[in-house]
Design goal:
This protein is mainly alpha-helical. Helices cover about 75% and strands about 0% of the residues. It has 21 helices and no strands. Helix 1 runs parallel beside helix 9. About 0% of the residues have low confidence.
Length: about 450
């Protein structure tokens, strides 16, 4: 059987198994809050779900490519984004314990009004919309070149099969299958790394010493990731929805563990790229390493991509259904939740058939949401409604400056790749904090 046929077997077979194993949601709590037999997820389930839902196909592809480009420094830099779990976990813990809030939407409505909540909902909707095509495109690329029939067929089949088990159980299905997918990811990653380190001359010490710890070779990205971690998690409902499912204590433990384990997984997968660099490979690191080791390892790497993409996709469907039915209060019913999932699949797949430039133009980057930093960091500090709009608007402005390469060169104080990303975020965060606090200072005067 050819490699391509085995890939089809992996996609269809794994999806059917997950559909059969997924619990059927019998109540809105099952569908939107992931309860199972009236019990909330425990630390083990919640941690596994958090980690695998953020180790999506695009992220591990990026991790491998950064390992190829910068050595282990690239992997560590990308892992910096996983500070997001610790930041969100700690802040939301206190928002629940001290503030009594049951969702971010309730917090925003209470503090800044319904319109602020609607603006926030638009931002996270775009995030969810982008999650669909950005993950399915990675899967499609393993089946054929862009714009080929095999490429589009893989995307459509994969999306519909993932939708099927998501419709069955909602967030219950998502978290249940996440635990299975996390286990698979761990085993498969171990197999890949075992093969890499079986190659004579490639050692752990060589991996650890790969790359240079300078701004030009990865530190620009690392510091940008750490800065964005104070806003990035709050525009991703896949992450924040899970912060309100279990008790505050269980949730905090899970988020802190996820921060460590998620970052570790990214660093470990970046070793695929480090190996590619050591062997003088070029192109997509994960693909090239898979080809170098033969059909079995290539299929394992493909299966890692399928596993990670499916876990993110089903979480995206569940979060969008909750956003529509519960957070926006359009009607808390399982039927509406399932309809919302179907709509998202269609809307999230359409851009794949459009020009790539359109895709990049529609992406809401981490920079564009830096205005959320003071909104949640200073959640306990009384602030007028205008503070929310000034800060979020300021963040969007800096995001567009970066997107259209309009940053004055004298703002950028380091050299190398991602220098513009770092300094736009530094100046942007500082500006967002100032404009958020100014209305409060004026009131005090």
């Amino acid at each position: 059987m050819s490699t391509l046929m085995w890939q089809w077997v992996l996609i269809i077979g794994s999806s059917l198994i997950l559909f059969l194993l997924s619990p059927l949601a019998k109540s809105t709590d099952d569908f939107f809050k992931a309860t199972h037999r009236n019990k909330a997820p425990n630390v083990f389930m919640l941690t596994g779900s958090l980690v695998i839902s953020w180790i999506f196909a695009k992220s591990i592809t990026n991790a491998a490519n950064l390992g190829l480009e910068f050595g282990i420094v690239g992997g560590v830099a990308y892992a910096g984004y996983y500070l997001s779990f610790a930041v969100a976990g700690i802040l939301i813990y206190f928002m629940r314990k001290k503030g009594g809030f049951t969702s971010l939407h309730q917090f925003l409505t209470t503090r800044f009004g319904k319109n602020a909540m609607r603006v926030f909902s638009i931002l996270i909707s775009i995030r969810l919309f982008n999650e669909v095509w950005s993950n399915t495109m990675v899967i499609g690329s393993y089946f054929g070149a862009v714009d080929t029939e095999a490429y589009y067929a893989a995307i459509i089949v994969f999306s519909l099969l993932t939708l099927a088990y998501s419709l069955k159980g909602g967030l219950s299905s998502s978290i249940f299958t996440d635990v299975i997918q996390m286990g698979l990811f761990t085993i498969l990653l171990f197999v890949v790394l075992s093969n890499i380190y079986s190659v004579p001359g490639f050692t752990v010490s060589q991996t650890a010493s790969s790359g240079i710890w300078s701004f030009e070779t990865g530190l620009n990205l690392l510091f940008a990731a750490l800065i964005q971690s104070f806003s990035y998690p709050f525009h991703d409902p896949v992450l924040t929805d899970r912060a309100f499912l279990s008790s505050p204590r269980v949730t905090l433990k899970s988020f802190l563990w996820a921060s460590v384990l998620g970052g570790a997984c990214i660093i470990l997968f970046s070793i695929v790229g480090v190996y590619a660099q050591a062997m003088g490979m070029q192109g997509q690191a994960a693909v090239e390493v898979g080809k170098a080791f033969g059909t079995v390892i290539l299929l394992i790497i493909n299966f890692i991509m399928i596993t990670s993409a499916a876990s993110t996709l089903d979480s995206t469907f569940s979060s969008f259904s909750k956003l529509v039915a519960v957070d926006l209060n359009w009607g808390e019913s399982i039927t509406l939740g399932r309809i919302a999932m179907g709509v998202l699949v269609i809307l999230g797949t359409i851009p794949i058939f459009l020009d790539a430039k359109i895709l990049s133009a529609t992406t809401i980057s981490g920079t564009m949401v830096i205005g959320l930093t003071p909104v949640f960091l200073f959640w306990k500090l009384p602030a007028p409604k205008i503070s929310f709009y000034l800060s979020v608007g300021c963040g969007l402005l800096f995001g567009f400056l970066l997107l259209f390469d309009l940053i004055p060169k004298n703002w950028i104080l380091t050299q190398g790749n991602y220098a513009d990303l770092l300094w736009v975020n530094i100046w942007g965060i500082a500006s967002c904090l100032i404009v958020y606090l100014i209305p409060s200072w004026i009131k005090l005067w």
